[in-house]
Amino acid sequence: MENYKTLTGMAMNQVYEQLDRQLPAGAYTEIKGSHGKDGKPLTDIDPNYATDVLNEIFGLCGVGWGYEYDSHDLALTVEMRKTRSGDTRRVCTAILSRMTFWYKLLDGQEVKTFVIVAGGASDNDDEAYAIKGATTYALGNAISKLGWQKSVYQGTRSHMTVKTAAKATTTAKAGATPAPKPAPKAAKAKVTEDEIVDDPPLNAAAFVIPSGNRKGQQLGDQSLEVIKWYAESLKPANDTQKGLQTAARQLLRVRSNGHEPVAA
Q: 259 and 131 in one domain?
């Protein structure tokens, strides 16, 4: 496939490089409660960056790349689940068993279409967001077969390494001498109550507000003042509200660092 090029004129070796290129620090977040074989927390990638990169490589969505699925391949269930605190939580689970991701390449003057089949699943308080999450998950599974953010999946790049590198670059540009690395802190003896959340969100910006005047809206669509109130002033009455506060704290930290992720 050395002679193949994308519709934007990109050669295949460039395609592989661009798919695995390091994204802005705000694209990488920790997956709370998940750990790899080395015991370190796993990293989640903001899916909105994938759309931008695919558009740059293959051309606009619907022209140089895209995806499709049949309605019978999508299953949606809604149930009430009990949380550890004894409350009930509405959970909508969407399972997309088969999605076809396609992309086009030029072989001389001939346009050829290639396909990758993948699936995905997601749950949310809202049916529409659960379906959107399953679609996003399936798309991520498909393009990972092309090498999308391969370094993250192989463990050579993570939210920790990227943000450390970004901080070091900022310090170097400012001409300051890097501060000595602090001694490692002792492990926490006890997890505080507000850190215990059932099913923490993989993407804080996509967290759906469960109650109040903004019920059904995504957290990432709110102003900084609203997010700060949820993070610092909300008094959680149940696990769902605890999840909201945790997501708000995660998003507040990201925005305080100057990054504005878009909800998936």
A: no
CA distance 204 to 261: 9
Instruction: Tabulate helix, strand, coil % of the chain (nearest 5).
Output: 35, 25, 40
In a domain? residue 157: no
Is residue 102, in this structure, part of any structural domain at all? Answer: yes
User: Is pTM beyond 0.70 here?
Assistant: no
Query: Do residues 14 and 68 both lie within one domain?
Result: yes
Q: Which domain holds residue 249?
A: 195-264
- Return the structure tokens found at 91: 């959970």
Decide if 169 contacts 229 (C-beta within 8 A): no
Is the domain of 129 the same as that of 226? no
Q: What is the 3-state secondary structure (H, E, C) of 193-240?
A: HHHCCCCCCCCHHHCECCCCCCCCCEHHHCCHHHHHHHHHCCCCCCHH
Residue spans of alpha helices (H) in 45-191: 48-58, 127-144, 150-153, 159-173
Query: What pLDDT was estimated at residue 95?
Result: 94
Query: For residue 14, how far is the Cα from the chain centroid?
Result: 24
The reply to whether 98 and 222 lie within a common domain is no
- Higher per-residue confidence, 154 vs 187: 154
Q: Which of 112-116, 148-152, 241-245 has the highest mean pLDDT?
A: 112-116
Is residue 44 within 8 A of residue 203, CB to CB? The reply is yes
In degrees, rounded to 5, the angle at the alpha carbon of residue 138 between the alpha carbons of residues 148 and 69 is 125
